Amino acid sequence: MKYSYSLIKKIAPGKYTKEELVKALNTYSFEAVDFGGDVFEVANTSIAHRFSSGASHLGVAREAAAIFDTKYIDPTLKRLNFDYKDKGIFKVNIKEKVLCPRYSATYVTDVKVGPSPEWLKDVLEACGLRSINNVVDIMNYVMLEVGQPLHAFDADKVKGGIIVRRGKNGEEIETIDGNKFKLSEDILVIADEDKPLAIAGIKGGKYSEVSLKTTRLLVESANFDGVGIYKSAQKLNLRTDASVSFSHDLSPELVEFGMKRALVLLKELCDAKIYKTEDIYPKKQPKTVIKFDLEKIERIIGIKIKKAEAQKILLKLGFTISRNMISVPPLRNDIEIIEDIAEEVARFKNLNELPAIAPKISMSAGVEEDLVIIKEKIRKYLSAVGYSEVYNYSFVSEEKLELAPHEVFGIKNPIKLANPLSVDFAYLRNSLAPYLEKNLNDNLRFFDQVRLFEIGKIFGNDSADEGGLKVSEKTILGIGIYNKDGFLEIKGVIDGLLASLGLVDWFMPDLNLENNLLESQEALRIELGDHSVVGYLGILKSGKNGAVLELDLEKISKAVMEEKEYEPLSKFPSVDRDVSVLVSSRIKVGDVLEIIQKADPEHVNDVDLMDFYEDDKFGDKKSLTFRIVFQADDHTLTDAEVDREMEKIVKFLKDEAEAEIR
Amino acid sequence: MDKKIQELKNKAVLEITGSFDLKSLEDLKVKYLGRKGEVTQILRSLADLSIEQKKVIGPQAQALRKELEELIDKRSAELKNKKTRSFDVTRPGKKIKTGHLHPLTLVEKEIIDIFKSMSFSVVDSGPEIETEYYNFDALNIPKNHPAREMHDTFWLEKNSAKNNKMLLRTHTSPMQIRYMEKHKPPFQIIVPGKVFRYEATDASHEINFHQVECLMVGRDISLANLKYTVEQFYSRVFMRKLNARLRPSYFPFVEPGLEIDIQCVKCGGRGCNICKESGWLEVTGAGMVHPNVFKSAGYDPKEYQGFAFGAGVERIAMLKYNIPDIRMFYNGDLRFINQF
Which of A103, A499, A583, B72 is the most exposed place for a label (fewest CB within 10 A)? Predict the structure, then answer.
């Protein structure tokens, strides 16, 4: 909202400049920005809690008077003389007492509608409002000055009296700006006997609008429930200054100040005659009284404060104090608890000068949760072996959902946003792989090899039916590579990584899961010792040198916690034996390794593939060389012992893989 | 020993050990042990000596010959082993390929280390999909209140099984409630995590970004303690002494609510283009945890009090590394990432 510096100065006259005011408001009150000329602005959000008194010139001037220690000349205290002793001809009937806690109306006659005086036009203009005629301008001016939204009806267009009721389905209203709105039960209206005249607390209707011919008015000053107005404004998609004010829960006490100020100005500027005000206020706002607990205020702020000083601050802001109880000014309905009082004291004590004091706490080790530690270890490992880290968006297009074998992570259905920014960002990602594939391709324009990884969340809906969402959210490691034999590299990297995390047992059987990302015969799943699937890796369809991997870190984290245990080191030397075989090219290395395992040789510590060789001279065969490492825990192996085990292996290779030993 | 033999020996040893290549060593061999060599001549001249002299000089000359032969062999082996051209150690070292961690990871890690050194514990980031309750209601941001408009929210299409509205968390503050539901004070924690805002992207706005939530609760944790913690944290992150400035502001989940500025990390407060000549940078919203938030978590607000603030990781990284555009963090461009 915009403010006029000269109007503030009228209410809180003092020797401060506009620059000093803006600076001081920032220090003591709320964020204010100089707008040049007579104007400065305060963001509604920053004064939301002090709205009923804050979002008005009176509210800001109250702050200024307290800061600069000036007089505070409240224009609503001006004397008002009624011209008649009765209330005129109108009755007010509030049918919705929760949505409308207070409604006051005043019948005004002999109004001379015309242009406003310059001083009034200046204030309106400074605050960004257009001058219309003196009556409408007075209503707007009072809203700016006092903070109470008002409305003036042409009294000749109001039939019978005012009824505050819910809209009816099928009813319609044309507002003063010429727009038409369909009404409903959810929307509160101000109506007469016949029809709705205004959308309560939001905008007036065209029919009863004040025109140059108007001579009699019905002036409304009312209070409406903040939530009700907020919902109505949302539903109608109609935001006005009035609706914003009401949405912030104005105090119903403000009603009478707004009305009185408007009537004074109507007499002054339009020569109007004023009837007594009809004021329906069934449930008066209770008085807020808070115990003056200085010790709590000191504990919140963290320094010693003299009682007299705190008292002085509160008095300047309009609080009253008697017998250790603080009475909150009626308009400050934002103040409810001692913490609110502490804020008033703290900000006028000058937060700028608050000392920085180290908290007194008992010593405890700062600890990190398991997943935090695992993530850090993985980052260290991967960056050390050449992989760079990327961060991608959590949002994907529908098309990208279909890419990766997300079933590996038990992700069933995708999660769609109700209000996506664009079709490219309509869903939450169910895999890191689609963006990693994109990252690989993007970077290939600048590098001939690319190695990257990301640690992030993927999302899915575990509930298959039409019913509610069952959110599944998993922390995943994704690795992507583009390089010759890239697949084998990440396969080696993941072995190294799992080992470095302290795992001892994992397998990589065929993935056997049709998907659009990976070549179907060229992908593996990653299983832990208990055969739970924790991830996959495979060669990208989009390019033979590209490969990706995804790994469920929560499962890995659990497995790591369970597994780490010391194994005694062997005191006896190991013996290496190499065996080269020629096997059919249909037989995979994995098959051969399985056969070696099936031979059940004793004392085998490790089997490594040393050489993989395909050549035309072998026809449809390939040559494989394995190194088998033998070691016993309790003695030094003899050649004879090792020979015996090798024979077992060779026999199995010949029988089961039809291998030719070279 | 015969004086002449002794002198010969000294001279020969010096010359042999000082020889610098095989050629000069060969010359020395001829000079001393060749057919006309100096040692050979002594041996030949033995015939002219008396029996007594022969007995003295003979063995000495023989010993010298043997000694020089061995010395020449040894030196010859040494010279043969010495490479003719030495390795040029001034060549550049081999390029070892290592990867680079993302700048947001580096900054987050620094933040974690600073807080850990101040006895804070690090809690894992928690769910990114939140219920309306944890993101708003429990944090004293009621339904149908303008305060929610400060949070432009991504909503999910479907509600939960219990028909709660679901959303992408707009801040890490829901973790205050989730942590307090399970732990009793006193404690001090930080929670780093990804958050989401429904808004148009530009150089300083992204639809997803990262925060670190900081929460300290005890019996008398105060605003002055908050100021201390904030000053310590930002001073250490930017590696220079920075004062904090507290300004009154409004966030529904804190009371008193504050906006915190720190002295400009570039100019230290004198005024520059980064701080728009003000000397200050707005860094975080903060305050004392609102009693209603404690009530949501099942605490008695009369018993406990504490402060909370949320630091923006991207903002710190941008200031620290002079990064002009927040979107660079999310485009996966290794030319950018590999600079860190």
Answer: A499
